[in-house]
Each structure stands twice: as C-alpha cells, then as structure tokens.
C-alpha cells in the first residue's frame, strides 16, 4: 500500500467510524437510558429528603413519648405524696396545682402525638413508594442496557475491526503527513483528503489553472490543494482505485 493509498484508506475508515459512532449514539436505548438516569437521580434526591424527614418524625415521637413517661411518673409521685398523711390546705392546694399542671402537659403531649404519628406514617409510605420507584428504574435500566448491548453488538464489533484497520493504515503514513491529515480532518469535518481527477480536485471541484496543474503533475504525489488546502493526491495509481 502506497502512502497516498493509505491516506485515502485512512479517510474512508474515519468516515465509516464516524457513521458507526453516530448510529450507536442515535440508538433509542441511549435516549431511554438518559431519561432513566435523570429520573433515578431525582428519585434519589427525593428519597434522601424523605428519609431525613422520617428520622426527624421518629425523633419527635420519641421525645413526646419520653415526655409523656416523665409526666406520668411525676404525676404518680405527686399523687403518692398527696395520699400520705395529713396535709395543710396550702399543701393540698400545691398538690392540686402540680397535678393540674402535669395533666395539662400530658394532654398537650397526647394531642401532639396523634398528628406526629400520622406524619410519620405519611413519610414512611412516601419512602416505600420512592424505594419501589428506584427499584423499578434500576430494573428498567438493566433491561434497557441489556437491549442496547444486544442490538449494538455487531456495530461495536465493526467499530473494533475498523479501528484495527485504521491503525494499520496510519502506520503506512509518515508522521508529517499524518499530523497534517489530523489537522485537516478536524478542520474539514472528516473530508481531509481529495484526489485529482483530470485537472479537478474531487472534493472542492475547483478546476486548476494550467500552470497549477503543471506544477502539481510534476510535483510530489501527496501535496496540498492550492484552493481549499486539503491534502491532494495527484498520482494516477490512486485515481484508478
């Protein structure tokens, strides 16, 4: 393989690789995977918030129950003290005031406990639903990924084969021409090399002036188009392929 032929082969392989990558990227499973990942991220964020709120609700209920136990214990102590022996009217009044205050606190705690339990139940239900949604999304992602892997197997195998062919073709090109090719490939979106067909470059299609054509015909096989500045192959051997 001549260097000129290798350059044209390199361009053809890069175009085919680009098409394969584009086809792979456009597969519907990829769009679905992106949608699933976004949904999973949203659910994870919501779940983190719900779990935090659920733990706060559990701590709130624990505090209320702790306070209730304390107030009941104090009530029993005050009541026991009131039942012991004789007391003055002032002492009796103090006992009554303490019991009344404790009863109000117990009532307040019991009143707060109901809504706190309801809130905890709502949060626990929301957490279960969020976890079920996360599990469903994970299962759907696994199935979608498996479908993508199966449908793209032949395409990925082709990409591997083309990549190996590209490596072999690149090995036939000099470092200077390979560097020039890479620059032109990026600049011209893949169409970096053109052939001289008669006196017309195959890509830019600008007819060469007689003087330019004469210089190119008697110059190097691999040169640069004077108009579009792509790599220009002038040899008849390449033209006939």
Structure description:
With 241 residues, the protein is mainly α. Helices cover 77% and strands 5% of the residues. The protein contains 7 helices and 4 strands, in the order H-H-H-H-H-E-E-H-E-E-H. The chain has helices at residues 3-25, 28-83, 89-151, 153-171, 175-187, 210-217, 236-239, and strands at residues 193-197, 200-201, 222-224, 231-233. It has a 4-stranded mixed beta sheet with strand order 2-1-4-3. The chain is rod-shaped, with a radius of gyration of 41 Å. It starts with a helix and ends with a helix. The mean pLDDT is 92.
Brief account:
The protein is 77% helix and 5% strand.
Low-confidence stretches: none
Please compute the radius of gyration using only Cα atoms: 41 Å
Please report which band the strand proportion falls in: under 5%, 5-15%, 15-25%, 25-35%, 35-45% or over 45%. Answer: 5-15%
Tell me the strand order in the biggest sheet. 2-1-4-3
Q: Please give the number of β-strands.
A: 4
In DSSP terms (H or I, runs of 4 or more residues), the helix count works out at 7
The main β sheet shows up as:
4 strands, mixed
Distance N to C terminus: 12 Å
Helix and strand string, N-terminal first? HHHHHEEHEEH
Structural class: mainly alpha
- Mean pLDDT over all positions: 92
From the spread of the alpha carbons, the general shape counts as: rod-shaped
Percent helix: over 70%
């Amino acid at each position: 393989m001549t260097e000129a032929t290798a350059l044209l082969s390199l361009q053809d392989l890069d175009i085919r690789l680009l098409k394969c990558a584009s086809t792979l990227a456009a597969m519907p499973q990829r769009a679905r995977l992106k949608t699933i990942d976004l949904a999973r991220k949203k659910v994870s964020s919501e779940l983190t918030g719900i779990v935090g709120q659920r733990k706060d609700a559990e701590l709130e209920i624990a505090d209320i129950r702790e306070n209730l136990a304390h107030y009941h214990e104090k009530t029993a102590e005050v009541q026991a003290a009131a039942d012991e022996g004789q007391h003055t009217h002032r002492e009796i009044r103090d006992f009554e005031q303490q019991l009344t205050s404790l009863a109000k606190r117990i009532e307040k705690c019991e009143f707060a406990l109901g809504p706190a339990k309801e809130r905890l139940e709502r949060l626990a239900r929301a957490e279960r639903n969020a976890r079920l949604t996360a599990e469903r999304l994970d299962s759907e992602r696994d199935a979608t990924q498996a479908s993508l892997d199966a449908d793209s197997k032949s395409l990925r195998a082709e990409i591997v084969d083309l990549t190996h062919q590209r490596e072999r073709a690149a090995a036939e090109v000099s470092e200077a021409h390979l560097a020039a090719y890479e620059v032109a490939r990026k600049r011209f979106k893949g169409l970096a090399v053109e052939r001289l067909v008669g006196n017309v470059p195959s890509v830019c299609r600008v007819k060469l002036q007689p003087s330019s054509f004469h210089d190119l015909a008697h110059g190097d096989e691999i040169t640069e188009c004077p108009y579009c500045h792509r790599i220009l192959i002038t040899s008849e051997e390449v033209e006939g392929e």
